[in-house]
Amino acid sequence: MKARVNGELRDLPDGTTVAAVLALLGAPSSGVAVAVDGEVVPRAEWPRTAVPDGGTVEVLTAVQGG
């Protein structure tokens, strides 16, 4: 299946979860928020939320600065 992850079209196996996308990206386990098709996915749901074919995943990382 194909899904857009942070603006980049990617080939992903069917049934890929949000947690698997984060692992693929090497994203940290904290300080991250994820939205699938514009809906924020609670952290507890990441392991069981599948990315839909043609879907959009945005991974946002908190940044500190001043």
TrEMBL record:
Any one Pfam family match given in the protein's UniProt record, by short name: ThiS
InterPro entries: Beta-grasp_dom_sf, Mopterin_synth/thiamin_S_b, Thi_S, ThiS/MoaD-like
CDD domains: Ubl_ThiS
Transmembrane segments: none
Superkingdom of this protein's organism: Bacteria
SUPFAM superfamilies: MoaD/ThiS (SSF54285)
Protein name: Sulfur carrier protein
Organism: Umezawaea tangerina
